Amino acid sequence: MKLVTWNIQWGRGADGRVDLDRIVTHARRFADFDVLCLQEVAAGYPELPGGDGGDQFAALAARLPGFTRIDGVATDTPHPAGERRRFGNMILTRTPVRQVFRHLLPWPCDPAVPSMQRIALEATLDTPGGLVRVNTTHLEYYSALQRAAQVERLRELHHEAVAHALEMRPGTLDDGPFDRVPRGAPAIFAGDFNFKPDAAERVRLMSAIDPATPPLRDAWELLHPGQPHDPTVALYDQSQFPGPPFTWDYVFVSEDLAPRLRDVRVDAASDASDHQPVMLEWE
Description:
Layout: E1 2-7, H1 20-30, E2 35-43, H2 56-62, E3 68-78, E4 84-93, E5 97-104, E6 119-127, E7 130-138, H3 144-166, E8 187-192, H4 200-206, E9 216-218, H5 219-223, E10 249-254, E11 261-266, E12 278-282
Helix pairs in contact: 3-4
């Protein structure tokens, strides 16, 4: 199984052009992915630089026939012209999908800085190796207060999901919305976390929860022990991020999935966004 996670900046490359064909081409060049986790997907935002206001959720799905489309809309607001504007994350997968959850993350008031509603999009996938819970998220950039609250919520969601996976509730597949649909215990949390490798938020995300909940581990550290993370930001877009490249994009896995990891790497060749794609391979 291969998963690619990528903050695509609504398809806007280092050259300022929005090009969804280029996004899909670069992602496929990087890996023959089974799961594609995207952040910063937009619909109804013609004011975004280079954008035309089109529905990128639909447009990206159309470019990947055979993949199930899962939208994770975090921001849903009216546009002055009358349409609605949507912004958030997306999962596209050719693996059968069980339960899907769209968790709006905490957004405590922090009036000193701009911010937006954030989401963690969760899907339990029925992989050849068993059920795996894939989460993709994009934490707050400007507000450390909000980002810390969002990290705590991710920990709570992981704890809750493991409990559901280990202790199935009563019910059958004929109980309507009370259906007893399995939830994966092994988990992947992938996305743009907006913290660097030495940040306290990263340490907190990986800290122990309780004896029954496998802690989250950084896949890079598991497969490249002692090596600094390859940078995922500022390789090509020096106008937004002047200075040396750095890391904001990660794949975290639950400890019970760690022995099944085979590879994690960053695509340093793509200039199709202001972030680099990251690939995880597991069995």
